[in-house]
Amino acid sequence: MTTIDASAARARLLEIIKDKAIVHGRVTLSSGKEADYYVDLRRISLDGEAAPLVGIVMRELTKDLTYAAVGGLTLGADPVATSMLHAAAAAGERLDAFVVRKAGKAHGLQQRIEGPSIKGRQVLVVEDTTTTGASPLAAVEAAREDGAEVVAVATIADRATGAGEKITAEAGVEYRYAFSLEELGLA
């Protein structure tokens, strides 16, 4: 298996995002706002070439933080967390992933958070792209309710709509992103 350094991974991931994930045209975002483009990062986080790069880039972005598990609100966070889990394993390190449901299950164990327990652990909340901050804020709240210490929120792409400031103000955690609108050629 060949290894790729973080700067090469970042450069290639940016190329793939620009090529496959940016859709031009009028769209309505989950926030209800309209935009002239859509950044569909599931096309990246679930892509066989790009997903491993996501893990490398996101781990590099957060390498100065201490956390034992990574996850966020399903569905955007799931492949990001899984990519990071696999990148950690490839580097000979351990990182667990968790999934935050939008609502608790009404059957089984009725858990809102799936995966290894995060109670008493430091965790990183992730997302693929951030517009309003609502999804990572919901994930932070759920993780804290489950007894975890959230160290930060990290996303692949930030839409520069004030979500970072909102997350920092409301959740009291640092917000980081791998790519800005300028880097994606959208600003």
Please characterize this protein's 3D structure:
With 187 residues, the protein is an alpha/beta fold. The strands form 2 sheets. A 6-stranded mixed beta sheet has the order 5-4-3-6-7-8, sandwiched between helices. Helix 3 crosses helix 4. The chain is globular, with a radius of gyration of 16 Å. The relative contact order is 0.16.
Write the layout of secondary structure elements.
Elements: H1 6-21, E1 22-28, E2 34-39, H2 42-45, H3 50-61, E3 69-73, H4 77-90, E4 96-100, E5 113-114, E6 122-130, H5 134-145, E7 149-158, H6 163-171, E8 174-179
Parallel strand pairs: 3-4, 3-6, 6-7, 7-8
Antiparallel strand pairs: 1-2, 4-5
Helix pairs in contact: 1-3, 3-4, 5-6
Subunit structure: Homodimer.
Binding site for 5-phospho-alpha-D-ribose 1-diphosphate: 101-102, 105, 107, 127-135
Function: Catalyzes the transfer of a ribosyl phosphate group from 5-phosphoribose 1-diphosphate to orotate, leading to the formation of orotidine monophosphate (OMP).
Instruction: State Rg.
Output: 16 Å
Strand order of the largest sheet: 5-4-3-6-7-8
Instruction: Tell me how many strands there are.
Output: 8
Main sheet makeup:
6 strands, mixed
